[in-house]
Amino acid sequence: MLDEILEHNRKFVAEHRYKPFETSKYPDRKIAILTCMDTRLTLMLPEALGLKNGEVKMIKNAGGIVFSPYDTTVRSLLIAMLELGVEEIMVIGHTDCGVCGMHPDQIRAHLIARGIAPETLERIDRDAGIDLDAWFTGFCDEEQAVLDTVSLLRCHPLMPRDVIIHGLIIDTDTGALRVLKKGTPCD
Questions:
Q1: With contact defined as beta carbons under 8 Å apart, do 169 and 94 qualify?
Q2: DSSP-H helix ranges across 15-117
Q3: Beta partners for 177?
Q4: CA dist., res. 148 & res. 142, Å (int)
Q5: What letter does residue 28 receive in the DSSP assignment?
Q6: Given 3.40.1050.10, 3.30.530.20, 3.90.550.10, 1.20.1290.10, which CATH number is that of 25-102+138-181?
Q7: Angle 50-52-53 (CA atoms, 0-180°, nearest 5)?
Q8: What burial class does residue 147 get, using C-beta atoms within 10 Å of its C-beta: 0-12 exposed, 13-18 middle, 19+ buried?
Q9: Half-sphere exposure (CA, 13 Å, Cβ side) for 5?
Q10: Contact of 40 with 64, CB cutoff 8 Å
Q11: What is the pLDDT of residues 92-140, one digit of tens each?
Q12: Which residues pair with 32 in a beta bridge?
């Protein structure tokens, strides 16, 4: 697969097909979107929101949520605001999310089936200061996961009070958006 991608890339560059994508590192609409890495959203989400290249910062992870106030997702959002001019955050979950209902026992079983020794998992649990069960636990409700993430971001001690944070759900079948929480600047 890599060889096919590299061949396509050579043609892409040689034919100057990158020209329509030229933009700066600063998002034109001053928005950061936190969403899920779900493949159905790759093209649908920007199209459903009417977004073009260069208009937003798009941050994706499994579930499109934040579990910990000091994880790399929060770091990315803070950098987007403090260094790249973002003034608004949209947390966009989606229907039929694979993280909804995810269980750590299943993830552990998948890891073992892929050759990770049970002792390695035990050592990480014991010595690395990481609770793998918590780390691999999904959520039970997509809407509540979005609202929890919005709340965590809004209450974060490093989050500037003037940043507007919204929570939405996108339907992966139709692209319809539903607003769960319309943000406003805080005092």
A1: yes
A2: 41-49, 72-84, 104-113
A3: 170
A4: 10
A5: T
A6: 3.40.1050.10
A7: 155
A8: middle
A9: 2
A10: no
A11: 999 999 999 999 999 999 999 999 999 999 999 888 888 899 889 999 9
A12: 57, 89
Give the tokens for residue 95: 């229907």
Contact 88, 154 (CB under 8 A): no
Q: For the chain, what percent of residues have pLDDT higher than 90?
A: 92
Quote the pLDDT of residue 184.
Answer: 84
Contact 93, 140 (CB under 8 A): no
Q: What would the two tokens of residue 71 be? A: 């994880």
pLDDT recorded at residue 67: 85
Distance of alpha carbon 169 from the chain centroid: 13
Q: State how far the Cα of 33 lies from the Cα of 90, in Å rounded to an integer.
A: 5
Evaluate if pTM is beyond 0.70: yes
Q: How far apart are CA 161 and CA 73, in angstroms?
A: 18
In the chain, which residues have pLDDT < 50? none
Between CA 7 and CA 26 the distance in angstroms is 30
- Domain spans of the chain? 25-102+138-181
Instruction: List the Cα angle 17/23/26 in 5-degree steps.
Output: 150
